[in-house]
Amino acid sequence: MTEPRFRRYTAEARSAMLIEAGLACLAQGGIQAFTIDNICRESGASRGLIAHHFGSKDGLLSEVYVTAYKNFLAVLIPDGAMDLQSLINAAFSDELYRRDPLNIWLALWGEIAVNPTLRDAHRVQYKALLQRIEGAIARHAQERGLTVDSRALALPVLALIDGLWLEAQIDPEDFSAARARAAAVALLSHALGPIDP
Predict the structure, then answer these.
(1) Residues in the chain with pLDDT values less than 70
(2) 27 with 103: CB under 8 angstroms?
(3) Domains identified in the chain and CATH numbers
(4) CA–CA dist 154, 196 (Å, integer)
């Protein structure tokens, strides 16, 4: 019996395939590789399916961004909560602090500055992540009887993670995961004392 030439997918499965193809294109070649032709080749889908499922390439890019954030949070905050040491360990883990995920973020960050659709998606995701980091800082401070402005501290913590990820792409040898973790621990320890759970 011969294999069927074409395989049918549900709308949800086809959308997921296009999103995964978009992530793969960003990982391989940055925003320049995020083209309809490359995405269709990677996913095995026709050009019309992007418009059908996402409205436009920008619509797909927004969904790719949301998926990248979900994947990131699944590693960073696997159970919906986090302590500060776990946050640092996860941010600079082998799963996140390596070429492909960092390429994806570098491409997306550059596009946010010039793409209003992506900027809107970013605002929602970034605000949610900041709130989670703020909560982790507040819990840490409360457990140790410290008085800190957790909201004011959450932003530089996230900025430090973002900055170290960026430097790792520019000079991966000089910005090892161990060095990145040490820098994050030093910043947090200065403000909050030892951060071991």
Answers:
(1) 1-7, 80-81, 196-197
(2) yes
(3) 11-192 (1.10.357.10)
(4) 18
